[in-house]
Amino acid sequence: MIAVLSKVFVVGVGMSNVGRFYERPLRDLAAEALFKAIDDASNLLPDFIVVSNMLSSQAEQENLASLIADYCGLRGISGFKVEAACGAGGAAMIAGYSLISSGLANSVAVVGVEKLSERSTPEVARGLAYAADADFEIPYGISFSGLNALVMRHYMDKYDVKRDEMSAWPILMHENGYHNPYAHLRMRITNEDVLKSPIIADPIRLLDSCPMSDGAAAVILASEDVAKKCNDTPILVAGIGNALDSTDISSRFELDSFLAARVSSERALKMAKLTPKDIDIAELHDAYTINGVVTLEDVGFAPKGKGAKYLYDGRFRPGDKPSINPSGGLKSRGHPVGATGIYQVCEVVMQLRKDFPGVKVGGEVGLTQNIGGVGSNITTIILRS
Amino acid sequence: MSFQRIWRLKDILLDLVGIRCKDCGYTCYPPKAACPKCSSRNIERIALGSVGKIVSYTVVNVPIEGFENMSPLVIALVETSNGKVLTQLTNVKPEEVRLGMEVEATIRRSAMTLDGYVPYIVKFKPKES
What band does B5 get if pLDDT is binned at 50, 70 and 90? Predict the structure, then answer.
């Protein structure tokens, strides 16, 4: 049984654009997102800062909580950084949630920031591969795309899923993301575009893959008492759950689903006393088409083997229940790795408040799911208006 | 990856040593300090065996830093009688690889490490009938 001492609310959100910002330092991106979130929370200055990030060593800067707090005029507050590979944002939300529900802090800024454009693609690919099992997978030269390709081929073979059915995912993501002013890749694509795009790691094509992005996103979390004073549209964090799986892919119990996606969403939904049928909006972690499709099934939005088929048949578009990734997802909004889980929370909060500046889908209950590694560290969050 | 890191693991990497749980019988590779199924620490190290079948594969055109000269890399997940192993395929053209193909282990050169050494590593090749 989970003892929640204080309810936790999101009272402010802020995002920088997602893209490749060669001219902007990491601290500048973080400050933009944090200041927007503080302004959105009626200038509530946080007691605590939790920074989420994966690859700051590649950007040649560690100790990010001190760096960002000091740069933003918050010297003297408490804080630290959380790393959980690409799932750092979700993990940082758990830290922020715990600080408030335990009474250790009344308000917490959770700031996700990533700066991948400091390095070449092979260097970043190597850094990302460290989230897999470095001792037993890197000696073979496999990339994250390669590991996900092994899942995709197995899935398509086992459930007889066609290429065109899988392509429905990136086509919908780009249609949604086209309207998102924060998105990295704002372009519409066709089935033919997917088929003509270069093969990165067969069967994964370029248009199955998210871009490598820079970006920062921040949320201000507050206890019930503080939330009432600073914001007229607080969003409740109704459930939050995390689950782990192996870093290596060889010893997985199953290759066609992510155990941690299923378990973390069960934990979050149980805490919120809800079922998948109650979800109006979900932001899922589609670093690759296969991740989006598999997690549709693992969360419970589609039966096993049917995720891509449902999507191809027209489900999950804006207005459906649930609407999936109205932001455009990682595919179109982009994947500023350690910040991605915070972008998802910002986007769902804005949907519930009805002030998201892209595709608006409405609704009262939202879900975010943030994945680290090849499904090895997953956090699911339930948000309610 | 440094050469030392591969050297430390050479017995596991070259002999494909996995684990078997003495309590529940679960086997897997790479080795763990306790059983992933039942959490028992009552485990023993076992050889995976040198033959298996391909359960999934990919052809990586954009490899990680250090492997650029070896691409395209043909990577497979091979199921042996004692567990699955991620490995590189050799002696086969990418277009000839099939799911279910029988393969056997062999020793080959890996890519040069970032500190300039060339380690040996186990790759798999189509089984000779």
Answer: confident
